[in-house]
Amino acid sequence: MSQSERLVLATRYRLVSEIGQGANGTVWRGHDELLDRAVAIKELRLPDNLAEDDRVVFYRRTLREARAPAQLRTHSIVEVYDVVIEQGRPWIVMEMIEAPSLEQLIERSGPLPPERVAHIGRALLDALNTAHKAGIVHRDLKPSNVLLDGDRVVLTDFGLAFSSGSASLTKTGHFMGSPAYVAPEVAAGETATPRSDLWSLGATLYAALEGRPPFERENVMATLSALANESPPAPQNAGALAPVITGLLEKNPTRRLSHARAVDRLERALAGPRSGRRAPTPRYRLMVVIGLIGATVASCGIGATALIVGMMRESPGPSPTAAASTPAGTAQAGAPPGAATSTLVVRARSDSCKIFVSVPGAAMTVLSDETLHMGEARQYDQPRINAVVYDASACDVWVNGRQKPAGKPGERQNYTLNKE
């Protein structure tokens, strides 16, 4: 056992084993002996020849890396627990996520199917939206900073992040970020903005679909030259995601997809397999009503009989894709049909019942990624199902015939189910 592996930080965080090394230090598997839980510990090493001024900047960047995600309590951003100064260098104590990165998955399995990339993109958009609303720009979104823990997608490594309320720590003439995933305007020396993160998201999703980022070349200078002078190549494996990718990779940030438009296009792509069905066409019945109107046409001095012709719209009937659906505003008592025999049934208690349901496997199949209206229900009979209910108070849930207790407002519930 090395000296580092015997080290206990702040009398509570014991280093257990090394997970991996990078340019700036080492990530360790650790154990919090006070709370008896596994943690990840990032050891940041300073270059030996670093000047004192640069050493101060390094420490400030380390504290910023810890503070940024600590402000952003969301399922899609890694949770930071503590920062410790030990042996003259900083250590960041984080949530332990034993899962591969998107980069590792691409290297191991090659390009991913569009359905899975769409799920990853939707989660990263949620993470970025949370960060951007807090005034934080990530600046280094790339596949190695995205962890895939089952259906959970986690954005990590806010080392280059900055908030709108903090001074920039980047020195003039120093390029920061990963050239293959950095936005063109940032590579040209402009200040990073939320739309710069969206470009990096586009490059990350492109790499997931194609196996490599759009402007990757043999060296940094060639990559930056291609980024500045060439148009992004059209993705070949994107399918319905192509408008999302091309919109995010728009070089002019003012024409680049905004967060809201990216979400809209992505959700359209996710709904693609269902878009082939025709919406029920409203039917109309001609209603002819004849009545006497006791009005006098002044100019003629005669009574007038009016023929009133109206179009009455008939109800289109229930949607063929909804499982049992209770009309909005009616009582929620009683289980919907199919609840007793289905692996999973979800019914909306309100209009904020958002669900994500998928079938796990080498190529994950997305069954639903939608928000149900009050009274709408969905049922799933697949033998294995993963499901996320984003607001447990907004949905009624039945698992293998048994209704789950209602959750708290805003509480997220995850289900990994096997049919009984």
The main sheet comes to: 6 strands, antiparallel
CA-to-CA gap between the ends?
A: 47 Å
The fraction of residues assigned to DSSP E strands is 25-35%
Highest-level CATH class of the largest domain: Mainly Alpha
Transmembrane segments: 284-309
Binding site for ATP: 42
Biased composition (Low complexity): 320-338
GO molecular function: ATP binding; protein serine/threonine kinase activity
Folded structure, characterized:
This protein has eight helices and 20 strands. It is an alpha+beta fold. The chain has four domains: 4-95, 2-Layer Sandwich (Phosphorylase Kinase, domain 1); 102-164 and 178-272, Transferase(Phosphotransferase) domain 1 (Transferase(Phosphotransferase), domain 1, Orthogonal Bundle); 284-313, no CATH class; 344-418. The strands form six sheets. It has a six-stranded antiparallel β-sheet, covered by helices on one side. A hairpin with a 4-residue loop joins strand 3 and strand 4. Helix 3 packs antiparallel against helix 8. Mean pLDDT is 78; it is low at 160-175 and 274-332.
Summarize the topology.
Elements: E1 8-9, E2 13-22, E3 25-32, E4 37-44, H1 52-70, E5 80-86, E6 89-95, H2 102-109, H3 114-133, E7 136-137, E8 146-149, E9 152-155, E10 162-163, H4 184-187, H5 194-210, H6 220-229, H7 242-248, H8 259-270, E11 284-297, E12 302-313, E13 344-348, E14 353-359, E15 365-372, E16 377-380, E17 384-389, E18 395-399, E19 402-403, E20 413-418
Antiparallel strand pairs: 1-2, 2-3, 3-4, 4-6, 5-6, 7-10, 8-9, 11-12, 13-16, 13-18, 14-15, 14-17, 17-20, 18-19
